[in-house]
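EI: anyone free to look at a 361-residue chain?
SC: sure, send it
EI:
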Amino acid sequence: MANPKSHLFSLSFFSFLLLHFPTVSLAQTLFVFGDGLYDTGNKQIISSNRVDASFPPYGNTLGEATGRWSDGLIIPDYLAGFMNIPQIPPVLRSTSDFSHGANFAIADATVLGSPPETLTLSQQVMKFSENKNKWTIQARSEAIYLFYIGSNDYLNYAKNNPNPSADQKEAFVDRVITSIEAELKVIYGSGGRKFALQNLAPLGCLPAVKQASGNVQECVRLPSEMAALHNKKLLQLLVELSRELSGFQYSFYDFFSSIQNRVIKSKTYTFETGIAACCGTGSVNGSSCSTYNAGHLMWGSDPVVIGPNNLRELLFLPLDTMAATRPRQIKIESIYDIKKIESEMETQWLYQVDKASSFLI
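SC: here you go
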C-alpha cells in the first residue's frame, strides 16, 4: 500500500513550487531524438522500400502498423500522454500538427557515420534548428528534449572490431560522447533547458544480437561493455553540463540496469524464463518488435533508476533554480561506478544470462 505521507509530501512540494516560483514550467512541448526505439514513423517516410514497421507484427495491439518498431505505443507516446499533450508526430510527415513538438528519431540512426536512409544525431538536430521558429522561445525553453541514441554505433563497432584494446574502446566511446555533447549544446543555444536521456541497454543481450552471434544461450560481451562505458561517460557529461551551462537541467534514466535486472531476475518481474523475444522472426524472435513500458519508470520512478529528477519532476522544475536538486544530483553521480558494473557483469549477468528471460528486439 502506498504511504499516504509520501502523497502529502508530493502535493506540498508541488504547491510550494507553484506558490514560490513564478517561472515553474508545465511543459506543453516535447522534442524527440534517437533511433528506432523512439521512431514514430520517420523511417517509413524516408525509406525507398517498405520497412518492417509498416506491417504485422508491428502495431498488433493498435490494430494496424503505424511505423513504430513495436507491437503498440512506444516511450515518447506514453510520455506525451503523461504530459497531457497529443502524441508527437514524425517530423518528416510535413502535414502534421507540430504545435506540441516534433519527433526527429528514426530507425538505424547513429551518432557517428552516415548510414543510408536515416538521419544521424547531428542531422536530426540540424532539422530541429531549421524548424525551431515554429515554436516560441518560451515553448523551446520549457520543452522536454528526449534522447535515446548510440546503440547502432556500438553494435556496428563491435561487429567490425571484434577484439579492440581497452584504449581503442575508450577512444571510440569518447568520440560518440563528444558528438553528443556538441549537439546538446546546439539545442541549449536554441533555448533548450530540460534534457531527458535514456541510457543504452546491455546490447549484447538483445535477442537479435544473440541470434546473429549463433549462440542464443549467451549474451555477447563486447557490445554490453561498450554500452556500460558509454553510459558512465554520458552521465559524467550531463553532470558537467549542468555545472557549466546556466539553467541546464536533466533527467537520466538508467535503462541498462532496468533491463539487466529484468533479464537476471525475470520471474521477479513476472516474465517467464526463456531466451526468446516476445514476438518476431528468427530462432529467438530476434528480428522484430517488442513492447515494454519504460515510459512509466521515466515519468515517475525513484532515484534507484532515474535521477536527479524523473520526468514528472523535470516538468515542474523551475527554469531558474537547481538548488533543490543538488543533493539528488550527487546521488545520481555515484550510481555509475564502471568497476562495479564490470564486476556485476562478471558475477551475475554473464553467469546467469543463459537462464534468463530476454525480451527486447
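EI: Confidence is low (pLDDT under 50) at residues 1-25, 286-292, 322-327, 344-361.
SC: 👍
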